[in-house]
Amino acid sequence: MCQLLTPSTVQQLLFVASLVIGITDAGSYEHMGTGHCEAGYYAGWNSADATLEACKARCTEEAQCLFFALKEAHTCSRYNSGAGDCSSVVGANDYELYRKLTAAPTTSAPTTASPTALGQLVHSSSLIINLQASAYDNPSETWTDLSSGYGSQGPSNGMMGLESSPPLSSSDGIAYFTFDGTKYVPLAAPFFPSANVLLKFSIGVYFRSTISGDAVTNCANFVNKPLLDFDRSEYFSLSFSHAGQLQFNTKSRIRHGMCTTTPLNVYNDNAWHYVTAVFDSSATPNKMLYMDGVLVLSATASNHTDGVGVTATLRYGFIGAGSEASSANGDRNVGEQVLEGSSIAMMHMYEGIALSASDVLANYMNITGTLPAWFF
Q1: CA 86, 87, 88, 94 torsion: positive or negative?
Q2: Signal peptide: which range, if any (predicted)?
Q3: Of 150, 177, 194, 210, residue with least CA distance to 349
Q4: CB of 195 within 8 A of CB of 314?
Q5: Minimal CA–CA distance to 257: which of 242, 284, 277?
Q6: Looking at 100, 129, 154, which one is the last position of a domain?
């Protein structure tokens, strides 16, 4: 079956070069054949590491590296103990798989880890929100916020731990918060006008949903059920429809919304997905939506060259509800419904960074430990 590739996918595939033939001696590494480990991925996709010698050096300097899969000129994908003995090998024959001999492989079965255990987010120094359910500290206080910009390990600077906060759950090794249409989380730090004009920003959410209802065929008719909202008419909102479609609203000189309606893309299948929304005032297109590492929608919002929030008033945000709040846990947008039928395991936001396609792909693989479907 033929599959249409996005321009970003084509660009990535063009980096693939022929593998060096006849390499059998890898020093302190054993050549295991072709393919890559099915689990345990934690880093890769830096073309500077994608030669045999550079990949060996990278794996040698990283204690957790037990295996690497080399795709010349493309990636040195490294795998930790989550790979077990890497007996389950997947992938195309343009990957060459090696085992580090200086550390005996574990013989335990692969385990299902929480999203945070599988790798670091790219450009982590630019995170202003980095919320991870697996790092939840005290259920009576807050959903722990690990970022420097929005506080650390406490409700006073980061999340507001109120009676409306959603409960913590865990299944299949993944910790998450459940949103049932009544629970939401207020953020305790605002965006300020003039001080927080967003020329570039990126949002990532690791979620699953069974939200149901009529599909939307026109963005103007979108009934928002927000994932992250700092007021769609002042700053931005990333939200669901009743049917599990996604909408990315921004406000600069004018407001602009784009949603996954044509073709109809819905994400309410109760599977874990990683969505990334990117805004870059200097780019064309200037708004992108990625799902599971793949670009699914892009648009150029007019009158956005000055950035998002350029005419805004002070706004505090919500996870799972719409904001019109000028104070912490202040007014909500009654026209936007509280998120329901959904779970969130991770949420992060970058200020001053518009993630590239390769950045998004790296975050997706670091969080999930898997490659996107189009690689197979």
Answers
A1: positive
A2: 1-28
A3: 150
A4: no
A5: 277
A6: 100
Cβ atoms within 10 A of the Cβ of 17, count? 12
- 220: burial class by Cβ within 10 Å (0-12, 13-18, 19+)? exposed
Q: Which of 363, 219, 213 is nearest to 297 (CA)?
A: 219
What is the DSSP-derived secondary structure letter of residue 60?
H
Cβ 299 vs Cβ 277: under 8 Å: no
Instruction: Give me the CATH number covering residue 49.
Output: 3.50.4
Assess if residue 81 is contained within a domain. Answer: yes
pTM (global) more than 0.90: no
In a domain, 332, yes or no: yes
Closest-CA residue to 133 (of 98, 174, 103, 164): 174
Residues in the chain: 376
Give the pair of three-digit tokens for residue 361.
Answer: 């792909």
**pLDDT tens-digit readout, 9-29:** 444 443 222 222 222 333 488
Q: Do 129 and 86 share a structural domain?
A: no
